[in-house]
């Protein structure tokens, strides 16, 4: 499974039942469009760290995570930066 598909799958898994039929696109806003709150974002980030064997660290800002596309780019960048190879 590609990195992008894995990220989308983790997002879909963590959606509230209210948003389960909402289409997820690169431009989807995690909070406004997909209904994520602070707790669900933390859960999402933990699952992403575990899935990809990366450390998202404490330096992330909302601009790194505001949309699904930005989250994907952040994850991809960290995978390359941290040399993570055992994921999926």
CATH superfamily annotation: ACP-like
Number of helices: 4
**What is the average of the pLDDT values?**
90
Low-confidence stretches: none
Query: Could you give the distance between the termini?
Result: 7 Å
DSSP strand count: 0
> Radius of gyration from the CA trace?
12 Å
CATH architecture descriptor name: Orthogonal Bundle
What is the third-level CATH name, the topology? Answer: Non-ribosomal Peptide Synthetase Peptidyl Carrier Protein, Chain A
Beta-strand fraction estimate = under 5%
Helix content: 40-55%
Structural features, described:
This protein is an all-alpha fold and 88 residues long. The chain is 52% helix and 0% strand. It is built from four helices and no strands. Helix 1 (3-14) runs antiparallel to helix 2 (38-52) and helix 1 (3-14) crosses helix 4. The protein starts with a helix and ends in a 6-residue tail after the last helix. The mean pLDDT is 90.
Q: What's the short version?
A:
The protein has 88 residues and is an all-alpha fold.
Features of the shown structure:
single chain; mainly alpha; Non-ribosomal Peptide Synthetase Peptidyl Carrier Protein, Chain A; 4 helices
Q: What is the topological layout?
A:
Elements: H1 3-14, H2 38-52, H3 62-65, H4 68-82
Helix pairs in contact: 1-2, 1-4
């Amino acid at each position: 499974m590609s990195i992008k598909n894995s990220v989308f799958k983790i997002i879909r898994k963590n959606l509230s039942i209210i948003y389960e039929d909402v289409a997820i696109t690169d431009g989807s806003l995690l909070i406004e469009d997909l209904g994520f709150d602070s707790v669900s974002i933390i859960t999402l980030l933990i699952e992403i760290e575990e899935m990809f064997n990366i450390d998202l660290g404490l330096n992330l800002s909302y601009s790194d995570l505001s949309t699904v596309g930005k989250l994907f780019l952040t994850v991809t960048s960290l995978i390359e930066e941290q040399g993570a190879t055992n994921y999926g």
